[in-house]
Amino acid sequence: MTAAPMAPTAGPSREAVGQSFDRVDGRAKVTGAARYSAEIPIPGLTYAYVVGARIACGRITAIDTSTALSEDGVLAVLTHQNLPRVATLPPLIPSLAGTAAPGQTFFPMQDDIVHYAGQQVALVVADTYERAQHAASLVRVTYAETPSVTTIGQGRDSAYEPESIFGGFMPGRIERGNIQAGLDHADVRVEATYTFAANNHNPIEPSATTAQWQGDELVLHDATQGVNATQMTVARLLGIPLSRIRVISQYVGGSFGSKAMVHNHCALAAMAAREVGRPVKLALTREQMFTSVGHREEQEQQLAVGATRDGRLTAIRHHKISVTSRFDDWAEPSLGVSSQLYACPHYQGIYRLIRGNTMTPTFMRAPGEASGMFALECAMDELAGELGLDPVELRLRNRTDHDPNSGLPWSSSGLRECYERGAARFGWGERGTDPRTRREGHWLIGSGMASAAYPVAPPGSPQRARARLYADGTAVVQAATPEFGTGVTTVMTQVAADALGMPCERCRFEHGDTDLPSIAAAVGSAGAAMISAAVHSAATALRNQMIARAVGDRGSPLHGANPVDVVVRDGVMTAGTAAESYVSLLQRHFLPDAEATGSWSPPGAADAEYAMLTFGAQFAEVAVDPELGLIRVRRMTGAFAPGRVLNPKTATGQLMGGTLWGLGQALLEANHMDPDTGRWANSSLGEYLVAVNADAPDVDVELIEVDDPVVNPLGVKGVGEIGQVGVAAAIANAVHNATGRRIRKLPITIEDIL
Length: 754
Ligand code: MOS
Fold this sequence. Notes:
By secondary structure, the protein is an alpha+beta fold. It has a domain of 176 residues: Aldehyde oxidase/xanthine dehydrogenase, molybdopterin binding domain (Aldehyde Oxidoreductase, domain 4, 2-Layer Sandwich), CATH 3.30.365.10. It contains 19 helices and 32 strands. The structure holds dioxothiomolybdenum(VI) ion.
């Protein structure tokens, strides 16, 4: 465990939760003391370099590794001809479930078949990275190529309706009411098709795994959102006991879903290390990230929305077609939140998939919500125009207090406040209702808005943490989760301090190791919620244990007090005028420490009495140069109701980051398959554009706290993804307001405006 530096604080922290603490790992990160998975110094380390398939479909007819093997420093060249077979291929289940979670149900180098370009076909191990990279260029692979399918255009005729999607987590079809009747009853209808380019995650830290065998024990340093998911997946693939594999991942340099599932390079590193008898580091290059860790799939969504003249929705028909891999029925669940957000009696959502020559797509920030809500919220804007209603008013008229799919009431909402306060903050009232009414020089100015919503997705398994109090008055709280860039280490220090009744400065959060109590992979914006629940539970159990010891101890001033009357502040237990510190109690009994574990079992879906979503409303102002086709986003406002806010600074950072990512989704981020070669057109940050500072306008975030006693002990609903959800639609709607042009594709590019 690396000791995270103590939090700089303004003073005694009796109520740490809710305060904008600085990051406890900030200093370690800016000084380079925080180590990432590819930076762990290990004696005798060797380096693996992946050779990816140059074709998208076909067979390997020959591999000549002799030249590569004869190079200095090369220790092994692994191919399908000599790599051992994997023991089992676990099913595709999202990592949040707390099980093995492979990124796809295909493991490379098990036979001679090529399913997608970039698929690992050889792995070179050498004593330096440069030698491995050079030798990889000398591996001669001969292919027999057959035609590939990689785009919707190529595969449309072969599309099928899957039974389930998203690793079997979601049904392939969602229906309520009678969609045709709903559309027939509508006074006004909007029908449109929305297209979406594929997207790739580009976290600053590319994925990397370092594998080290110590006898028959395996230690992995892996860049992952969940060490237990890596542990379980690699154990299954290699056929080794869970007790023989330890996964360490303290710091992760961004992930956004690319490190949620456990991708093939991870077990390959372990297999290579076993082959060469030395530790192996396998770090993906930026280019390899585009073909090795999943992506957001290319998709098309068809939407038909019907409403009465007074703006009540009667029907939403939302169909999606997208490209998946040859092995898995994966679609991001674009029809989830779109089916839940509005009161609408008739709904039909249908997914259709095309088997293509790509790897299995995966989670990518707001997976499904960010695309599905673009379609729905653009259609709502069109509908508002048709009805002559203000877009905010249309949404208020269709707001619902319960989930229209299940009929269950929301555990909490805050959506009305989000609309109202977001609109006030943004100055929505100053917007010109009709398009092309605001001008500044040659710039056309427009404003748009959209709703945002994101599921509260509790993990599928209990979450655990451990708290330990030392006789010198310091405390450590432990859980397996990595610090994946969100501020989880900081926030958990705050949660632990409050539950123990101690100042943050004397508490430390240890994390990122399967030797610590298990935590599911932090996905679905669930990290802060599930980890805080476990930490709160462990720290509360320890405080109660200390109180019980004191009141039962004849030597304590608290002897005989009622435990419920005891409060703890600054490490001192007090009941009335009697008081004793944790330190005094431990020292009097010659105890070096005291310890407790805590566990939080998420509410099960089967007996749920509430439905859970996080809500928000987002607003954007754009300036469009119609001659040059330029779009500048001038400002964005979001109001969000994420339950309880544990740390406004880190929460706002998440929401601002999500909002800026939404800007990238709206205007920049795109990857396209070259249908002739079946390869991605973009494989670098020079070509795959992401929003940078020059693109970033002012982002204004309002946090609206809502009380939610249902979701988890601290009432946390999550902020990781909702910031992105409504942005692209708000921008597209603003472009329409500015120009009168309705653009139904993402990203919106210069050509779309001209
Ligand atoms: Mo997040 S895209 O659910 O890992």
